[in-house]
Amino acid sequence: xxxxxxxxxxxxxxxxxxxxxxxxxxxxxxxxxxxxxxxxxxxxxxxxxxxxxxxxxxxxxxxxxxxxxxxxxxxxxxxxxxxxxxxxxxxxxxxxxxxxxxxxxxxxxxxxxxxxxxxxxxxxxxxxxxxxxxxxxxxxxxxxxxxxxxxxxxxxxxxxxxxxxxxxxxxxxxxxxxxxxxxxxxxxxxxxxxxxxxxxxxxxxxxxxxxxxxxxxxxxxxxxxxxxxxxxxxxxxxxxxxxxxxxxxxxxxxxxxxxxxxxxxxxxxxxxxxxxxxxxxxxxxxxxxxxxxx
Length: 294
Prior knowledge:
Elements: E1 9-13, H1 26-38, E2 43-46, H2 58-72, E3 78-81, H3 87-95, E4 104-108, H4 117-130, E5 135-139, H5 141-144, H6 150-159, E6 163-168, H7 173-182, E7 188-191, H8 197-202, E8 207-210, H9 217-228, H10 232-249, H11 256-264, H12 281-293
Parallel strand pairs: 1-2, 1-8, 2-3, 3-4, 4-5, 5-6, 6-7, 7-8
Helix pairs in contact: 1-2, 3-4, 4-6, 6-7, 9-10, 10-12, 11-12
């Protein structure tokens, strides 16, 4: 079983490139994976929100994971995004998944149903009891409609050895501080917001699962390393060099923004799948200017 320390630092929530026909572009995906690994990323996250997983067919999901695993070739850990608002269905999906080459699951809180804290605990308890790999909890209330609070997260971390981390994207600093203060020593708190990464690490957090690292893997990895080494002067310098572009990649939705940046870097075609649409020309031009400035 993977050590939690192997999932600290900088993880990247990989996008799924599409070609002009809106088919998965596996060549571009492989190129992206190689680039982020070469530039210092610590682990990969496949089929997260940023991957537009909700728009992929079952066959496409398997093919995307295969491309990421084949390209990675065991170099760094791979985390697989798996979530559902039907606990029994998620258990069935996990039970039929091949976890060869997969080191952990990133599993989002059930969306739409709005379970209370007891329901969230029981959901994750049920997953923990059957999962063949460790779990990273994913708390993103802005998308799911429910918040996994610090008390429930800490209870899960204490009760189940294979629940090893949380991707915390609530934006609630009081909750994040409470979580870091009371968590078990070997339990990781990872930022789910690029802009909140430096503050979270400064408070005692362990790293990030990043969107901007698709386009700036070296810079963002260096930010995280500097922050963890208490070199706050360097960390702040990198942080402020990226804040404007980070704000803009989320201005019209994720991953439309980061895909526009990658298109400007000539890495992928600027294609997303409905119900998402590409960023407006105005935002595209703003991103172009910011990339030139960087």
